[in-house]
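ENTRY TYPE: paired fold submission
RECORD: A
CONTENT: sequence, then structure tokens
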Amino acid sequence: MERKVKIIHCADLHLDSRMTTHLTKEKAKERKAEILKTFLNMVEYAEENQVRAILIAGDLFDVGNISAVARNTVYNAVKEHPGIQFFYLRGNHDEGNSFLQTGEHPENLRLFSDSWCSYVLEEGEKRIVITAVEQDTVHTRSIADSLTLRTEDFNIVMLHGQDREHETKEMGGNISLRSFRNKGIDYLALGHIHSYKRDRLDARGRYCYPGCLEGRGFDECGEHGFVLLEIDGEGSCTDHFIPFASRKLYTLHVDISECMTTPMIGQCIQEVLDREGYAPESMVKIQLEGRVDMECEKDISYLEKWLEGRYYFLKIKDNSRIKADYSQYAKAASLKGEFVRTVMDAEGVGEEEKAWIIKYGIWALAEEMERDG
């Protein structure tokens, strides 16, 4: 059986990310270590599965001033696996990092610059060649024009940036896929988008974003991992997405339109959680939605405490809106009626804001009447 050359394509690892947006200081520290460990697990996967090369298509790190533990861990992982070639294309988050300021870098670490650079990974009748350039936000089209490849090779091209037909000055650069068509590319290994995306580039090749290795926030829900390529001696290539994250993140939408009390809301949440069956190690954000009666009683803090410990992390965001029905008060010859009419006639106040003012105003009036009664 002919041996196939295996290559891992990953990107946007964002090692050393602070992770403090949602998590406590302790869990942020733990999560940061988990993401670094996932990188090490990927390298071990490569070793165990005879992977020849790991392509890192940008944003290996999250900030310029990286910690000593992150720098040394990555450096040692590369050095201790000399049978794997690491191709590191810096992304916009990698600018100015101190990873390569440790003197000589390992021989199996391949780097790129602001002009096209190519490395031959596999010699033979069908060479496998990896070509890349570190691009800025301005010269994308001219970079494409200067790319020259041998059509008889299996050509992998690495870039980091947003796939756009019209260039912008957004951080991270832009990639006009149209500019790279019919250039002899077999696999365009991209980075910058944090979710998996794959499609045809032209009649010959395909392009792929592997997404980030681990989801860090609730804008990065779903499966995360890397792409495994297998190339035979004739240049036939298959690529598969490999889920690899240590934790999954989920955003759960719960309609509470029919609920009137906190326990009823809790029951609604429980029914949806039971149906979804998330693993205990998951990170879950629950979004409460729908239009609730203005008399509805909600205690978000209680609900979060009630669900505490079921998942690694859980938060509840209340996006529900007041179902405004003022008819029972608006014509009443009472203090409540006068209050409702005053709020409804107020200029420059949105309907949702009016609903909240009326809700809490009526509650306050009711409490005052109880005290006076």
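RECORD: B
CONTENT: sequence, then structure tokens
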Amino acid sequence: MKISTKGRYALRMLVDLAQHTSDGYVALKDIAKRQNISKKYLEQIVAVLNKPEILKANRGYQGGYMLAREPRAYTVGDILRITEGGLAPISCLEGDKNNCERSSNCATLFVWEGLYDVINKYLDNITLQDILDHQKELAEYEYII
């Protein structure tokens, strides 16, 4: 499984919004500049993430985007499921029910189910707040002479 650029950039964009929550609505051009991502590409990502439970949008002079909830309410797993369309390592695990005709006697299915379980548990236990906290810890350990 490989996370696409869209998924990685969406996560970076939401982390940026989480870092700037006190700024109110944040313009895409500002995020684009800070994250070194084209504004056009961010517009495509916003189209995918523009849901009431993810983003608040404001048009006009003071327009931009902000998180709809607190950073601790967003998991990396949820963000990647939205942008990637799912996290299943193989196609037969993508739906709610495994419809593969070989699933009842597939010798390797347990391997993929285990991997899928580990991926989901790991990514669902990391929030945007965790990323902010980790970033803060790294900054505290930087020592400049």
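NOTES ON RECORD B: The longest strand covers residues 55-58. The first helix runs from residue 5 to 19.
STATUS: closed
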